[in-house]
Each structure stands twice: as structure tokens, then as C-alpha cells.
Amino acid sequence: MTALETAAEPREIHRLDYRPPTFWVDSVALEFDLGEEGTVVTARLSLRRNDEVAEGPLELDGEELETLSVAVDGRVLGQGEYTIEGERLTIPDLPARCELETKVRIHPESNTQLSGLYLSSGNFCTQCEAEGFRRITWFLDRPDVMATYTVAIRADKQRYPVLLSNGNRVGERDLGDGRHEVRWEDPFVKPSYLFALVAGQLASHAGDFTTVSGRTVRCEIWVEAHNLDKCDHALRSLQAAMRWDEEQFGREYDLDLYMIVAVDDFNMGAMENKGLNIFNSKFVLARPDTATDDDYEGVEGVVAHEYFHNWTGNRVTCRDWFQLTLKEGLTVFRDQRFSADMGSEPVKRIEDVAMLRLRQYAEDAGPMAHPIRPESYISMDNFYTATVYEKGSEVIRMVDTLLGRDGFRRGMDLYFERHDGQAVTCDDFRAAMADANGRDLAQFERWYTQAGTPRLVATGRFDAAAGTYSLTLRQECPTGQREEDFRALHMPIRMGLIGPDGADQPLGFEGEAAAGAPTERVLELTEREQTFVFAGLTAEPVPSLARGLSAPVLLELEEDEQRLAFRLAHDSDAFNRWDAGQRLFGAAILAGAAALARGDEFQVSKGLVEAFRAVVTDPSLDGSMRSLAMALPSELELAQRMEIVDPDALHRARRAVRRALAEGTRTELAALWERAKPSGAYSNDRASIDRRREANVALAYLSCLESPEWTAAVAAHFDGADNMTDSQAALATLCQLDVPDRQRALEAFYAKWKGDPLVLDKWFTLQATSVLPGAPTRVAALAHHPDFTWRNPNRVRSVVGAFAMANHSGFHSADGSGYTLVADAVIELQGANPQLASRLAGSFNHYKRYDQHRQQAMRGALERIAAVDGLSKDVYEIVHRALA
Ligand code: PHE
Ligand code: ZN
């Protein structure tokens, strides 16, 4: 140990240290005696020595367990026959096959971490991924140990009438003493992280699904009785996902029962436990007056995501946690495709890429940068990241693009054929894809080993005499990574060349016949630099590259305002049209910020206003597309592109651009509002959703004019809203205005919704993200509101999370009060809920990109957190990486 290290320093786990377990567990029988003050868990494990590992004791994981007894083959072990050291129980001499029985007491009633067995709204529930099962009983708590489970749950009949676990319900009996018992059996082998149990007062909204082979599956959504009228959308989403997986991937559901339980206290979005998903209620409950159109899409996407895990995650799982993207990247890819099929493909793609760039590109450029398959971790909880999930999905998307839809399906079929019932690696997935298609995907592995967002620098040269266009694409090392570690990636670049008339040109390679050439191609890059020469061109084309973001790169291509406006108007790829607009508006805001920082004035160009006007009035755009195309890049996203981030100049510049666009197109905006504003009763069909989106965006722009007329229109929109989409949009707009209607609307909203936690979260968030002066003070007051609690993750995220992640100018207030507030929150939470605290601690990850003064203040905040006595390993890992 060096002088700097301390005994308390958490241990780092490395991917290459993987060793198979010394024992397998074939089956598990669990008994739960649930109690108000302590729960007793009895576990009987059928153990079998792993022949590949001839030696070694049995080592079990356990955390915060009070061990009552340990017995082997019916004989209780004495003190000397096993050891418990910290979080490990070791038994040295065991026969090759035996049954181990342990009895432990645990305390769900005081479990604030929300990992293991805990209480939410008085009901028992579990969360075991990644390492929560060890907080329930002694176990080989690692995903490569797969077993069948039988579960007996005993509890007070009155207080806990509903007792659920994985698989099929196989028995129930009254125990006579006011308690009852329900037994469950899961016939499929699973890793411990997929175990689940729920006990409490719940009611279900149910429906049937008939599988492709004609079996009937009962689908149940379990909620507190007063929420029964908010379950239908989740149920329909589940049924749609089941059908889609049959149609697209030939995957049928395997049990006769599928349950989803909504709980209010949950660290993440939802969990795919076999046959018994447990969800954050945010992704289940939806009614038009309580949930927005976006919330509805969120429910549909998450329900589908968890359902798709049944095959990509549960039937085929991960060998170890470094392989997490094997199930998450693939399942995100599947849910994204599903949502695209349910709604609009380009709209979904734009939303996904916007999120990727905002969260994942930022992560890639900061201290938490890691490959989609990380090399090491201190706490696995910290690696449920945008990189593992969203970039992981982009990597799968590239496989799909490279192999084509049919080739990808062949690869999936082979993957399931080879690995059903197994715990496997990302390499196994890649091998199945390659083998099913006779392709070499060896170089493609680099996407799994290299961190960072590669830059792709494009240059084009038109030779008028020869009629050729040479396109050179060069891969550059990601920012923050070492040049000597960067090796060329295998990436597909979907592209076209747009002619002066706005039409895609035929793409004949030099030496090929131009006639019949496609107007769009996928270029396969495998080298650092490659040049492609297209022939038969009569005029200089405008390149449209990486269409649909065909690879997760930062495309660098010099384009002036005129060219971007041209692509915004003409690119045949809807995604690239949007992207051209984002580049255009982004460049204007950044130029404005630079001017303001210098103390200069700046003007929004006429060209910019005209490009914007074209978007507002383009009859070919649907309302969702229009609203996306009208949205300016956020301050957070633009900050990533500034040399030294100046939050004030950035904020002022973005505001000024917004206002100038609104002033320049007020007539068109008003016409758009008139055409799209609510008329008649709420409906949730696609056209109505589209209309709501464009109406709300138009009104938000008009509100920038700060005229009494438009402020009154926003207030009236709020007062007249018959659905949460309009109500929230209007209130969000009012929250950015310093007008009396803001306070009045906030009070009305509160009075109406104070009894509905999910809607109340919105009320908190809208205030926490207001950029009006004094944001940190207002947020501090919100944290003292009687409805605020540190014990509910959604509530904490709606105040502190929203402020730190979605109120750039407020969080970075020059006096440092925003930093103090967030650091205080991390310190307040880190003992009780380390996972949540560590997410918030990540808000400081980019401090090095800000001015000296802010850097110092953020560094000070990090150091204050680092100095906390007994800092949890989750938070430790985040702050130490940041400070390194
Ligand atoms: N596996 C869950 C999902 O992606 C996410 C999750 C991870 C939930 C860890 C809880 C704990 O759907
Ligand atoms: Zn998942």
C-alpha cells in the first residue's frame, strides 16, 4: 500500500480478471417470511462443482445480512466450518454435489438504497440488477450462474393480499394465523439479477395476448387501486411489443403470465425481471390529463424495452457485467426500431440522436469516457450509462446497416440458436452476426474497445472538366483519447450528393457506368483515410453525409450558411435536413456568444431568418418534424462545442437568436398557431399529436416577443387546456416569463395536482428549469417545500437533477450557488441512496471546460464531496475520476 492509498479505498474490478465460478447453482428454493420489523429469508441451493475449475472453496456474496444458520445436506455447520468476512461467506470443504441451506434476517423496512428488498408506498418490492440479490440472501451473485427458482412468500393476509414472484403461480394456502402463503415456480433458468418479489395491496388491469402459435398469455399491470384508470396504455404497448417481436424477430413469449408492477420509489426507469417487470410508475401510468404525448411515448418505449429483454437479456444473458451492452445496446436498438414502427421513423431517429449527442457525446468527452464494453469499474451501478445503452445501440445499428435487414435477422436467429439459456459475451454476438453472413467483423471489435467519439473529417473536390467529385473521409482520434491508442474503425457512411436543383444525383463510382447508379450509397470505411471518386457529374454537388447518423461520429464538414440552408430545404434525408438546421442555428448562436463575450454587438443574419421562415411554413413537414426543426440546440449541447464555456454569453446569445427569429417571422408563427391551436376535444391520434407539437412550439416562440397579447395567449392556453401536453407546455412557457400569470398558473396547477406525485414532479421540474434570475435560490426553496422529499428518486431528480442537467445558466450561476446546492444534495443523499447521489455527482464532470473561476468553484464542490467520511463507493468513483 502506498502512502496515498488508504485501507478504505474501494476495489477496482477488471474485465480481464474474469474467472468462472467454482460452483454452479442448478436450482434455488427461496422462502420469505415478510415482516414489518425484519424479514427472514431461507435459501436452499443445489450446488454442483464446476469441473473446469477443479479447486477452490465456495464463495458467496452477501451484504447487510444477519446470518441465522448455515447447513449443508441437512447438517447445521459449526463456527469453524465456514467464515464470514465482510461481504463474503466462504465454505472450504464441500462435496461435488450438495444442498446448502442458509437462513438470514434482512431489514427491508429501513432499506433506503432501493436495491435488494425494500418498501415503496408500504408495499414490498425488489431490485436486484446489478448486485442487489446479495442484499437478500447469500448467493453466487453473478450473471453467469443461472438456476431455476421456486419461491414461497408468507405474509400478513390483510396488509399483503397480493404476493408475486417470477414464473407461474403454483399454490396458495391460508396459514391460519392471519398470514397466507403463495408459491411461485419459474421453469426457465435465470441469473439472480432477474429475481423479483412483490407483496402488498395492489390491483391489476389485465388483458390477454394470443401468441403466434396460439397460446394465450395473461398480461397484468399491477398498481395501487386508485391508479387503475391509468394502465391501459401500458397494457396496449405490451401487447403491441409482443406482436412486433414475433413479426420482426420470430420471438414468442414463453410463459403463460406477464406481469408489470408500478412502484413510486425506483432508482431507474424499469427492470426486466423474468415474468415480473418492476417499473418506475413514471413509465406505466398515463391518462390524457396527467401525461403528455411525450410521456405516452416514454411508456410505450420502456414497456417494449423491458419486454424485448425477455429474449435479449433473459433467455440469453451476460456472462459478466462488463458485457452489459450485449443486452442493453441490443435491446435499446430493438426498442428504437419498435417505436419507429409505431410512430414516425425520422422523428424517432432525430429524438434518439439528439439525446445521444447531448448525453453520450458529452460522456465520451469527459472523465467518465469508457468503451461500450468497459475495462474496469469500482461500482457497476455507475456503468448504466448513455455509452453502454445509447452508443451500444448505435453500434448494433451499424451492424444492421452493414449486414442489411435480412442479414441482421439471420445473425439474430443464429445468436438465439447458439446461445439460448446461456450467459455469453459481446464477442459471441459478433461471431453469430459474422458467421450467419459469411462476413469478417474482426475490425468491428474496435467499437467495443475504444472509448470516445471519433471525428470524421470530410473534404470534397469537384473537377468540372472531368465531371468527378472526390470525397475524402478521415477518421480522427476522439477528443480526450490518446492518439497512439486510436485505430481505424469499421463504419458505414450512408450518403448522397445533391445537385443544384435539390435532387440526389446518381452515384456512379469512377470507372462504373453512371446509368442506373443508385442515388444513395453506404460507404464502408475501414482505414484512417479513404477517398471515393464519383463520376458523371455536370455540376458541383452538395454532399449529404452520414445520413440518419449512420455511425456515431462527429462529422466535420465545412459548410457555410448558404449551403446549410440549402440542405435544410432540400436534403432528401429527413434526418440530415434537421441536422443541417441544427448546424445552421448552432453556428449562429455560437458566433453570437463569441461576439457577446468580446463585448461586441451581434446581428442575426437575414439568411437565418429566411431559413427559419421556410421551416415554419413548409407544407411538406408534419407537425412533429416541424417542431423538431424549429427547436434551437440547447445551451448544454452548444456548450460542448465552445473552447471555454461562457454560460452567460451562451445564454444571452441563444435568447437573442430566439427572439430575432420570433420577431422576423411573427406573422408566420401566428398563422401556424392559429392553424394548429386546440380546437375541439382532445384526441390522441398521430395528427392531433403533431398539431399539439407545432402549436406549442409556435406559441413558445411568440412568447419571446414579451408582448401582453402573446403572454395572455399563453395564459389562456393554460387555462383552457384539457390535456397535460398543452397544460405542461403552457406552464413551461409561463415559467420562463417574469409575469404575474406565472405565479397564478403555478398555484392553480399545484392546487389541482398536489395529490398526484408524477404530475407534481412536473410542477417541480418546470420551476427548477426556469432561467429567470435567481434560479439557485428558487431551487433551494423548492427543496424545502413540504412536498419535497430526499427519499423519492423521482422527486429528487425533478428538482436537483433537472436543475443540474437542464438549467445550464442557473446551475452555472457565476456566484457558485448552483454548485453548492448540488454538492449539498450529493452529500445529503450519498449514505442513504448512493446510486442516486452518484448520478447527481456526475453534474460536475465537465468542470474543466469552464472558465477559471467556475472551474475552481466546481473543483471545490467535488473536493468537498470527496472529503466526506465513509463516502459510498458509487460516489467515490465518480468524484475521483473527475478530480484525476
Ligand atoms: N436493466 C434495466 C433496463 O435497462 C435498467 C436497470 C438497471 C434497472 C439497474 C434497475 C437497476 O431496462
Ligand atoms: Zn435494458
From TrEMBL:
<dbReference type="Pfam" id="PF11940">
    <property type="entry name" value="DUF3458"/>
</dbReference>
<dbReference type="GO" id="GO:0008270">
    <property type="term" value="F:zinc ion binding"/>
</dbReference>
<dbReference type="GO" id="GO:0016285">
    <property type="term" value="F:alanyl aminopeptidase activity"/>
</dbReference>
<dbReference type="Pfam" id="PF17432">
    <property type="entry name" value="DUF3458_C"/>
</dbReference>
<protein>
    <recommendedName>
        <fullName>Aminopeptidase N</fullName>
        <ecNumber>3.4.11.2</ecNumber>
    </recommendedName>
</protein>
<dbReference type="InterPro" id="IPR012779">
    <property type="entry name" value="Peptidase_M1_pepN"/>
</dbReference>
<dbReference type="InterPro" id="IPR035414">
    <property type="entry name" value="Peptidase_M1_pepN_Ig-like"/>
</dbReference>
<feature type="domain" description="Peptidase M1 alanyl aminopeptidase Ig-like fold">
    <location>
        <begin position="452"/>
        <end position="556"/>
    </location>
</feature>
<dbReference type="InterPro" id="IPR024601">
    <property type="entry name" value="Peptidase_M1_pepN_C"/>
</dbReference>
<dbReference type="GO" id="GO:0008237">
    <property type="term" value="F:metallopeptidase activity"/>
</dbReference>
<comment type="function">
    <text>Aminopeptidase N is involved in the degradation of intracellular peptides generated by protein breakdown during normal growth as well as in response to nutrient starvation.</text>
</comment>
<dbReference type="GO" id="GO:0006508">
    <property type="term" value="P:proteolysis"/>
</dbReference>
<feature type="domain" description="Peptidase M1 alanyl aminopeptidase C-terminal">
    <location>
        <begin position="562"/>
        <end position="884"/>
    </location>
</feature>
<dbReference type="InterPro" id="IPR001930">
    <property type="entry name" value="Peptidase_M1"/>
</dbReference>
<dbReference type="InterPro" id="IPR042097">
    <property type="entry name" value="Aminopeptidase_N-like_N_sf"/>
</dbReference>
<dbReference type="InterPro" id="IPR037144">
    <property type="entry name" value="Peptidase_M1_pepN_C_sf"/>
</dbReference>
<dbReference type="InterPro" id="IPR014782">
    <property type="entry name" value="Peptidase_M1_dom"/>
</dbReference>
<dbReference type="InterPro" id="IPR038438">
    <property type="entry name" value="PepN_Ig-like_sf"/>
</dbReference>
<comment type="similarity">
    <text>Belongs to the peptidase M1 family.</text>
</comment>
<keyword id="KW-0378">Hydrolase</keyword>
<dbReference type="Pfam" id="PF01433">
    <property type="entry name" value="Peptidase_M1"/>
</dbReference>
<keyword id="KW-0482">Metalloprotease</keyword>
<dbReference type="InterPro" id="IPR045357">
    <property type="entry name" value="Aminopeptidase_N-like_N"/>
</dbReference>
<feature type="domain" description="Aminopeptidase N-like N-terminal">
    <location>
        <begin position="97"/>
        <end position="194"/>
    </location>
</feature>
<dbReference type="InterPro" id="IPR027268">
    <property type="entry name" value="Peptidase_M4/M1_CTD_sf"/>
</dbReference>
<dbReference type="Pfam" id="PF17900">
    <property type="entry name" value="Peptidase_M1_N"/>
</dbReference>
<keyword id="KW-0645">Protease</keyword>
<feature type="domain" description="Peptidase M1 membrane alanine aminopeptidase">
    <location>
        <begin position="234"/>
        <end position="447"/>
    </location>
</feature>
<keyword id="KW-0031">Aminopeptidase</keyword>
<keyword id="KW-0479">Metal-binding</keyword>
<keyword id="KW-0862">Zinc</keyword>
